[in-house]
From TrEMBL:
Any one GO BP annotation for this protein: oligopeptide transport
Family designation: Belongs to the major facilitator superfamily. Proton-dependent oligopeptide transporter (POT/PTR) (TC 2.A.17) family.
UniProt-listed SUPFAM superfamilies: MFS general substrate transporter
Entries under Gene3D superfamilies matching the protein: MFS general substrate transporter like domains
Sorted UniProt keywords: Membrane, Peptide transport, Protein transport, Symport, Transmembrane, Transmembrane helix, Transport
Localization in the cell: Membrane
Top-rank taxon: Eukaryota
Topology with respect to the bilayer: Multi-pass membrane protein
Annotated transmembrane regions: 15-35, 65-86, 98-117, 137-157, 178-198
Protein name: Solute carrier family 15 member 1
Taxonomic classification: Eukaryota, Metazoa, Chordata, Craniata, Vertebrata
GO CC annotation: membrane
């Protein structure tokens, strides 16, 4: 059975600047980093765009509670980068922090997707979940994991990408950062455009909440 340490060793070899094959003069690893960042941003902002709707129309919360929980979640996402930086600098390093917290983030998105499945507790098949506390519990667990995951890797990914270049690749490194932040903004922009469009086509807010998790 392949252990966690075996996977870490494999990925360290894959992302080693001295061993990584190049593509168009760039380390091949940076293309994976850019694509992963695009998908992560699309997933995060797509979920966030419909989060209040999910609270109001699926969990049946009022406006005040929905707004309070939404802003608490957003604040936590921007607070956890401090924790991620501490973990990376003092304990695991950038690579292990990214891998570990990406797994946490993926689990969180999966739990959010599961929590929005209406039929999971719709025992009488009337189109309304019958066990709202279960969906609330799963949603809160999912949001906490997402906040720790997306925030924890935030201070590490761009620095890790920069580490993939040799000293003499200053020009390629500068272009990488431009491409990296383009992917961040492109994922955010497209998700906030596409998700509301899907809102008009999908009748279920729960189903709409599951869409962003596809790119996790």
């Amino acid at each position: 059975m392949v252990s966690y340490q075996d996977w870490l060793s494999f990925w360290k070899i894959c992302f080693s600047p001295t061993l990584m094959p190049s593509c168009f003069g760039y380390p091949l690893s940076i293309f994976f980093i850019v694509i992963n960042e695009f998908c992560e941003r699309f997933s995060y902002y797509g979920m966030r765009a419909v989060l209040v709707l999910y609270f109001k129309y699926f969990l049946h919360w009022d406006d005040n509670l929905s707004t309070a929980i939404y802003h608490t979640f957003v604040a936590l996402c921007y607070l956890t980068p401090i924790l991620g930086a501490i973990i990376a600098d003092s304990w695991l390093g950038k690579f292990k922090t990214i891998i570990s917290l990406s797994i946490v983030y993926t689990i969180g998105q999966a739990i959010m997707a599961v929590s929005s499945i209406n039929d999971m507790t719709d025992y009488n098949r009337d189109g309304t979940p019958d066990n709202i506390p279960l969906h609330i519990g799963l949603s809160m667990i999912g949001l906490i994991l997402i906040a720790f995951g997306t925030g924890g890797i935030k201070p590490c990914v761009s620095a890790f990408g920069g580490d993939q270049f040799e000293e003499e690749q200053e020009k390629q490194r500068n272009r990488f950062f431009s491409l990296f932040y383009l992917s961040v903004n492109a994922g955010s922009l497209l998700s906030t455009i596409i998700t509301p469009i899907l809102r008009g086509k999908l009748t279920s807010v729960g189903l709409l909440m599951q869409v962003p998790s596809v790119l996790t």
